[in-house]
Design brief:
26% strand, 12 helices, OB fold (Dihydrolipoamide Acetyltransferase, E2P), alpha+beta, BirA Bifunctional Protein, domain 2, 2 domains
Length: 436
């Protein structure tokens, strides 16, 4: 039984399992605080009772962070600060022992180096704050999934070992695959589109992606979890933006209902539920307004994409101009984007970036589905045989379609105000970290 369920079973014999959070061994009584992923409960042992003799001896030798299986009666105890209940045990089984001093105190990490925490991640993750963070992350992904399932999407699972470098020949991890080379997939993009060429209609995937970027920033990782979406028969990339905005609004509404107050208490952040449509601006107009409003200037040759500082200022611009935390940025030049993005007759990309709280969380677009056009785009980018298998997807008919991808770790970081994705990934992978 989980600790959160105990209040429904007062005066009954129950069995709970968990970690020893603390032990107090007083003259006449012993107290154990037991914790699991759902909460904590006090276990009380009266030393004077003969029947407790064996239990007392067990607690005398008990170390914190050991694990227990406890059987006893759950009682109401209004004076107990920990939920107004306690367990009077009849049996305590030590299922594993903590055999030494912890490498650091995970309950107070103020002086602990982040690399040390990551070296002992299994200890670091025992903190209530980290546990809550991953519970929220799990709930977030669940609601994003639910939204798509409710709108007719099908979840697929694409290969992560691929025979050609996806998207481009750079920034991929090469692996030995029997007698030839293979690569770790940068994204499921090609296979999402293959699914639509197969007639699947609406698909999504939640899976790892790999980028061989020697980047040591707070928001990049060499392996991360991506939430990818693709769907057919769109009229324009506006349909893609609308669906993403609706999905995020739905997700934040659900998260706020369950975790809003807890997020304020533990992370000192507010889950702001979007209202109405997300605003959108042309890239050129953004740079114009950033200069007029905040005196932010860049050279013309930098204005074909968002600089990191421009992304950051987009948060302030979205709030000041639209009273929004989100901002869709459109009208990027095609040369800065992948060859499979649709372009209009003027060469303007039919896609967008979504900026949230000053960070890009999504690149989305209408895809090029016409065989002749996508072959031409690939040649312009210098791509040939490496993507020939992908180009074949469009030879025999493929519906108009578009999609987007969101990095789950980055989204969690921004939602909870965490400084780095190193902390929002279960196990971080970066240029200098491959363990544990």
């Amino acid at each position: 039984m989980k600790i959160c369920e105990l209040a429904d079973h007062y005066n009954e014999e129950i069995t709970v399992c968990g970690f020893v959070d603390s032990v107090r061994n007083l003259q006449w009584v012993q107290f154990i605080v037991l914790r699991d992923e759902t909460g904590k409960v006090q276990i009380t042992i009266e030393k004077s009772e003969e029947k407790n003799k064996e239990l007392v001896s067990i607690v005398d030798e008990l170390s914190v962070e050991s694990t227990l299986k406890v059987t006893g009666v759950i009682m109401e105890a209004p004076k107990v600060k920990m939920g107004g209940k306690e367990i009077i045990p009849s049996n305590i089984e030590v299922t594993s022992k903590n055999t030494g001093e912890l490498p650091f105190n995970y309950k107070d990490i103020s002086t602990v180096n982040l690399d040390t925490r990551l070296d002992y991640r299994y200890i670091d993750l025992r903190s209530e704050k980290n546990l809550l963070m991953f519970q929220i992350q799990s709930e977030m992904v669940r609601h994003m999934r639910d939204y798509l399932y409710n709108h007719g999407f099908m979840e697929i699972h694409t290969p992560k070992l691929i025979g050609a470098a996806s998207e481009s020949g750079s920034e991929v991890f090469e692996v030995k695959y029997f007698d030839r080379k293979a690569y770790l997939a940068q994204s499921p993009q090609f296979y999402k589109q293959m699914a639509l060429a197969s007639g699947f209609g609406k698909v999504f995937e939640v899976a790892p992606c790999f980028r061989a970027e020697n980047s040591n920033t707070s928001r990049h990782a060499t392996e991360f979890t991506s939430f990818d979406v693709e769907f057919a028969y769109i009229d324009s990339f506006q349909d893609v933006m609308d669906l993403e905005a609706e999905m995020l609004t739905y997700t934040f509404e659900k998260l706020n209902e369950k975790y809003g107050e807890k997020v304020k208490e533990v992370f000192e952040q507010e889950i702001v539920v979007p209202k109405g449509k997300f605003p959108q601006m042309r890239l050129a107009d953004i740079y114009k307004e950033l200069e007029e409003r905040y005196n932010y200037k860049v050279d013309d040759d930098e204005k074909n994409d968002l600089t990191t500082e421009a992304e950051r200022l987009c948060y302030k611009l979205a709030q000041d101009k639209f009273d929004s935390e989100f901002l869709f940025v459109i009208d990027f030049p095609a040369e800065k984007r992948a060859f499979y993005h649709m372009r209009d007759e003027n060469g303007i990309l039919q896609g967008y970036d979504l900026i949230w709280r000053g960070v890009e969380i999504t690149t989305g677009a209408e895809r090029e589905h016409r065989y002749e056009e996508i072959v031409k785009n690939a040649k312009e980018k210098g791509l040939g045989e490496d993507v020939s298998f992908y180009l074949d997807f469009f030879k025999h008919g493929c519906p108009p379609h578009g999609g987007f991808a969101i990095g789950i770790d980055r989204l969690t970081m921004l939602l909870l105000g965490i400084p780095s994705v190193k902390e929002t990934q279960f196990l971080f992978r970066g240029p200098t970290r491959l363990q544990p």
